[in-house]
Design brief:
Layout: H1 8-14, H2 23-28, H3 37-45, E1 48-52, H4 57-62, E2 69-75, E3 81-82, H5 84-96, E4 102-104, E5 110-115, H6 117-129, E6 146-147, H7 155-170, H8 177-182, E7 215-218, E8 232-238, E9 244-251, E10 270-275, H9 280-294, H10 305-312, H11 314-325, E11 345-348, E12 354-358, E13 364-365, E14 367-368, E15 371-372, H12 373-383, E16 387-390, E17 396-401, H13 406-415, H14 426-429, E18 431-433, H15 451-464, E19 474-477, E20 491-497, E21 500-505, E22 516-523, H16 524-541, H17 548-554
Parallel strand pairs: 6-7, 7-8, 18-19, 19-20
Antiparallel strand pairs: 1-2, 2-5, 3-16, 4-5, 4-13, 8-9, 9-10, 11-12, 12-17, 14-15, 16-17, 20-21, 21-22
Helix pairs in contact: 5-12, 7-9, 9-11, 10-11, 12-13, 15-16
The chain binds siroheme and iron/sulfur cluster (SF4).
C-alpha cells in the first residue's frame, strides 16, 4: 500500500499503533480542552468525537478564548436492547458528566454530549462497568448493529436480535488500545475489563476499512430499521410457523452526499441473495472483507460500499463475496414490508407480557418545566423488571412488562406526562431530525431544535385538511450527510445555510424509494407556504389509501428517483398553485 497516494487518514491509521496515536498524551495535556488533530480521527474508533459549542463560538473567538471544547460519546447498544440498570447508569452519566440529556440515535445507540476532557476517561470506564462499550461506535469499522427492536413480539425477533449481537461481537476490533487508554488506571496499570489477547486485527488489518460500515437486520413486515439505507442488511425470511429459515442479504445502501456534488448521492441497498441463519455471520465478514480490499482509500467521499458496488456492479460484488465464502448464495426469497415507522402504544406478546412504545421527539431525553420526561423514565427504570429498547426512529420501547407490573408503570407514565407522548399527529409521530446545532461540527442549519416548531406550523394545514391521523414520514437534517435518513422520507428538509433548506419530496412510505429535490434553498419562513398547496392537493385528490410520497410523483410535483445515480437529475416539476 503506497500511503502517499491515499487519503491522509490512511497514514493516520497506519502509524497509530492500532488506534493509539498520542491519545493518552493528549488526555494528560491540561493546557487545552482539545486533543491533537490526528488523534481526533482515532478517537472516533473509540466512540468519541471532539466538538465545540457552536452557540458560543463567535463570542469566544472575539474574547480570544479557545472554542468551548467538549466530547460526544456514542455508546453501542447492539439491536438497541439494554437493561433498566444500564438505563439508570446512562441517566446518571448524562447528569454527572454530560449536558443533562441523553440522545437516542437513529441507529439505536445512546449519545452523551458535552463531556469535557478531564471527565472523558471516568465516563468511558463507567460505561464499560455497566457492561456497555463505545469501541467501534464510530470510525472506519462496523458500527452498532441494528435490529427490529421488538424481540419478544415473536420468537423470530429474538433470533434476529441474537444474530445482531453475534455479528457485532464478531466484527468488533481486537486492538488492545481501547482497554489500554480508557480502562486502565494509568498509575496502577489496573484494568477494569479483561483485555483481548490479540493485538493483530484478523478481520480489519491495521488500516481498518476505507470508511464507516453499517449493518442492520429487519424482520418483515416492519422496516422500522430502514434496511435500504445500510451498507449490509439481512431481511429475515419466515416460514408458516414464524421460524426464520434464513435471510435475504442486501448490500450497498447509504445516504450521505454533498450539496452540488453530483458524484456523491444516496443509494438504496439491493438484494444480493439468500443465506441460511448459520451462514449469516460468515456472509457479514466476507462482505466486510471485499469492501476492505476494494473500497476507495484515496477519496473518502467515494469510499462507502455503495460506490464500490456502483463502480463494479452487483454481479462482480456477489462473485467476490462468494469466492471468499467458498459457496454460492441462494436466490433471494419473497418478502414484503408495510412501513418504516414505529408502532406506538401498548402491545401484548405471545407470552402475555406488555411492551409500550413511547414517542421521544428526535430522540432527546431531557426534562423541561412542563415535561419531566427524563425523571419519568428514571423512575420507571428503578422499578422496571423487563428491558428498554431503542428504536431506529429515535423512540423508546419499555419492553417485557409483566401484566401485574403494568399498573405501577402506568402510574409513573401518567405522573410524568409520558402517557400522552404518542397522542400526536401522524406527521409528528413519523418525524425525525438529526442533532445538528449546537454540537455537530458539520451542520449548516438547525435541525433538532427547529423541526418540532415547523411541524407545529404544518399541523395547522394537516388539521385543516383532515389529515391528523395520516402517517407521513417527515425528516430534517442540518446538512446533506443524511443522519436522519432524509432521502427516503416522503417530505425532507436538508440544511443549506442558516435558515435555508432544500425540500425533497416523494420518498417511499416503507423506505424503499429515494425522494427528489422539489425546491432549493427555501427560507424557513417560506416552508409552510411552499408545502400548503401540495398538502391540500393531496387531501383532495389522493386515491384510496395512496401515500403522500406516491401522490406527489403521480401528481407531477417531482419525478420519481429510480436509482441514486439519478438523484440529482430532473428536479421536481413544480405545479402552479
Ligand atoms: Fe451521522 C457524521 C450524528 C446516523 C451519515 N453524524 C456525523 C457526526 C458524527 C458529525 C461529525 O462527523 O463530526 C454527527 C454528530 C452530531 C452530534 O453532535 O451528535 C452525526 N449520525 C448522527 C446521529 C447521532 C444522528 C441522530 O440524530 O440520531 C446518528 C448516530 C447513529 C449511531 O448511533 O451510530 C447518525 N449518520 C447517521 C445515519 C443514519 C444511519 O446510519 O442509519 C447516516 C446516513 C446513513 C449512511 O451512513 O449513509 C449518517 N453521519 C453521516 C455522514 C455521511 C456519511 C457518508 O457516507 O457520506 C457523516 C459525515 C462523514 O462521515 O463524513 C456523519
Ligand atoms: Fe450533523 Fe449533518 Fe449529521 Fe445532522 S446530518 S448530525 S448536521 S452531520
Amino acid at each position: 500500500m503506497d500511503l502517499s497516494e491515499l487519503h491522509k487518514n490512511e497514514t493516520i491509521k497506519d502509524v497509530s499503533n492500532f488506534l493509539r496515536g498520542t491519545i493518552v498524551e493528549g488526555l494528560l495535556d491540561e493546557s487545552t480542552g482539545a486533543i491533537a488533530k490526528n488523534d481526533q480521527q482515532l478517537t472516533k474508533f473509540h466512540g468519541i468525537y471532539q466538538q465545540d459549542d457552536r452557540d458560543v463560538r463567535r463570542e469566544r473567538r472575539k474574547a480570544k478564548q479557545e472554542p468551548a471544547y467538549s466530547f460526544m460519546i456514542r455508546v453501542r447498544v447492539p439491536g438497541g436492547v439494554c437493561t433498566p440498570k444500564q438505563w439508570l447508569e446512562m441517566d446518571e452519566l448524562a447528569n454527572t458528566y454530560a449536558n443533562h440529556t441523553l440522545k437516542l440515535t437513529t441507529r439505536q445507540a445512546f449519545q452523551l454530549h458535552g463531556v469535557i476532557k478531564k471527565d472523558l476517561k471516568k465516563t468511558i470506564r463507567e460505561i464499560n462497568e455497566a457492561c456497555m462499550d463505545t469501541i467501534a461506535a464510530c470510525g472506519d469499522v462496523n458500527r452498532n448493529v441494528m435490529c427490529n427492536p421488538n424481540p419478544h413480539q415473536s420468537s423470530a425477533h429474538g433470533e434476529a436480535l441474537e444474530l445482531a449481537q453475534e455479528i457485532s461481537d464478531h466484527l468488533t476490533p481486537r486492538t488492545r488500545a481501547y482497554h489500554d487508554i480508557w480502562l486502565t488506571d494509568l498509575e496502577t496499570g489496573e484494568k477494569t475489563k479483561v483485555t483481548p489477547d490479540a493485538e493483530d486485527e484478523p478481520i480489519y488489518g491495521k488500516h481498518y476499512l476505507p470508511r464507516k460500515f453499517k449493518i442492520v437486520i429487519a424482520v418483515p413486515p416492519s422496516n422500522d430499521v430502514d434496511i435500504y439505507a445500510h451498507d449490509l442488511g439481512f431481511i429475515a425470511i419466515l416460514d408458516e410457523d414464524e421460524n426464520i429459515t434464513g435471510y435475504n442479504v442486501t448490500v450497498g445502501g447509504g445516504m450521505g452526499m454533498g450539496h452540488g456534488k453530483k458524484d456523491t448521492y444516496p443509494v438504496l441497498a439491493q438484494v444480493m441473495g439468500f443465506c441460511t441463519p448459520d451462514q449469516a455471520v460468515d456472509v457479514a465478514e466476507k462482505v466486510v472483507l471485499v469492501q476492505r480490499d476494494h473500497g476507495d482509500r484515496k477519496n473518502r467521499a467515494h469510499a462507502r460500499l455503495k460506490y464500490t458496488i456502483d463502480d463494479h456492479g452487483l454481479d462482480w460484488f456477489r462473485d467476490q463475496v462468494e469466492d471468499r465464502l467458498g459457496y454460492k448464495l441462494e436466490e433471494a426469497k419473497e418478502f414484503a414490508f408495510d412501513d418504516n415507522g414505529d408502532r406506538y402504544g401498548w402491545i401484548q406478546d405471545e407470552d402475555g407480557n406488555f411492551h409500550l412504545t413511547l414517542f421521544i421527539q428526535n430522540g432527546r431525553v431531557k426534562d423541561t418545566d412542563d415535561y419531566p420526561m427524563m425523571t419519568g423514565l428514571r423512575e420507571i427504570a428503578k422499578i422496571h423488571k423487563g428491558d428498554f429498547r431503542l428504536t431506529a426512529n429515535q423512540n423508546l420501547i419499555i419492553g417485557s412488562i409483566a401484566p401485574d407490573d403494568r399498573p405501577a408503570i402506568e402510574e409513573l407514565l401518567e405522573k410524568h406526562g409520558l402517557k400522552d407522548s404518542y397522542e400526536a399527529t401522524g406527521l409528528r409521530l413519523n418525524s425525525m431530525a438529526c442533532v445538528a446545532l449546537p454540537t455537530c461540527g458539520l451542520s449548516l442549519a438547525e435541525s433538532e431544535r427547529y423541526l418540532p416548531d415547523l411541524i407545529t406550523e404544518l399541523e395547522e394545514i394537516i388539521e385543516e385538511h383532515g389529515l391528523r391521523d395520516d402517517a407521513i414520514t417527515i425528516r430534517m437534517t442540518g446538512c446533506p450527510n443524511g443522519c436522519a435518513r432524509p432521502y427516503i422520507a416522503e417530505i425532507a428538509f436538508v440544511g443549506r445555510a442558516p435558515g435555508k433548506y432544500n425540500i425533497y419530496l416523494g420518498g417511499g412510505f416503507i423506505g424503499d424509494r429515494l425522494n427528489k429535490l422539489y425546491k432549493e434553498s427555501v427560507l424557513s419562513e417560506n416552508i409552510v407556504e411552499t408545502l400548503r398547496p401540495v398538502i391540500a392537493d393531496y387531501a383532495k385528490n389522493r386515491e384510496d389509501g395512496e401515500k403522500f410520497g406516491d401522490f406527489v410523483i403521480r401528481a407531477g410535483y417531482v419525478n420519481e428517483t429510480t436509482h441514486g445515480r439519478d438523484f440529482h437529475e430532473g428536479l421536481g416539476e413544480v405545479k402552479d398553485s
